[in-house]
Design goal:
alpha/beta, 7 strands, globular
Length: about 200
């Protein structure tokens, strides 16, 4: 299996990517397992931050790198938490802390105005000097609940209502979530491009 470094130490993301990329015989390993320290995310967009993370991981390991910069974009909050989703309630905030802050920010806002979407930007780089990185994006639209539901997933999944399934993202099984999610959609695009390049 070809080893690919994921520019993240998020256990939930690593599990998801290994599940999504399994058919291609790629093994996704965390940057932490290869002694790659996190790089400051100084970009102002998902694309900028994903490029920063992928280039850094390639540079340190010499391996192809996959970086995922994703987050929750809430319309009533002018796009917040956005690129700050993982650290919405502070640098070392837990998922629970971030969810609580989001619920407080939306307190009193009716359901029809609680529209939101998950955004994912994926960047694939063959090496640190790759002049043509693959950049793919995916979106997943829903609403923000007034209280958490479900035990699965991670991040804001317990608060993200998926209308077509009539449940929260955290109540979906892993396979169904991967079919619907922003990350699943971005990975589908990435795999199509990689297959084209391999022809």
């Amino acid at each position: 299996m070809e080893k690919i470094v994921l520019a993240s130490n998020n256990a939930g993301k690593i599990k998801e990517f290994n599940r999504l990329l399994e058919p291609f015989q790629w093994q996704v390993v965390s940057q932490g397992s290869l002694n790659v320290e996190a790089v400051p995310e100084t970009g102002l967009t998902f694309v900028e931050n994903a490029l920063i993370k992928a280039r850094h991981a390639c540079n340190v390991t010499g391996l192809p790198a996959l970086a995922d910069d994703s987050g929750l974009v809430v319309d009533a909050l002018k796009g917040a938490p956005g690129i700050y989703s993982a650290r919405y309630a502070g640098e070392d905030a837990s998922d629970q802390n971030n969810n609580l802050k989001l619920l407080q920010a939306l307190d009193g806002i009716p359901h029809e105005q609680r529209t939101a979407h998950f955004h994912c930007t994926l960047v694939w780089m063959q090496h640190a000097e790759d002049p043509d990185p693959i950049i793919c994006q995916g979106h997943w639209h829903g609403h923000i609940l007034t209280q958490p539901a479900g035990e699965g997933g991670f991040g804001y999944d317990p608060l993200f209502w998926v209308a077509e399934e009539q449940c929260a993202s955290a109540e979906l099984g892993p396979e169904r979530k991967n079919q619907l999610s922003h990350r699943g959609r971005a990975v589908t695009k990435l795999l199509q491009i990689l297959q084209e390049r391999q022809k």
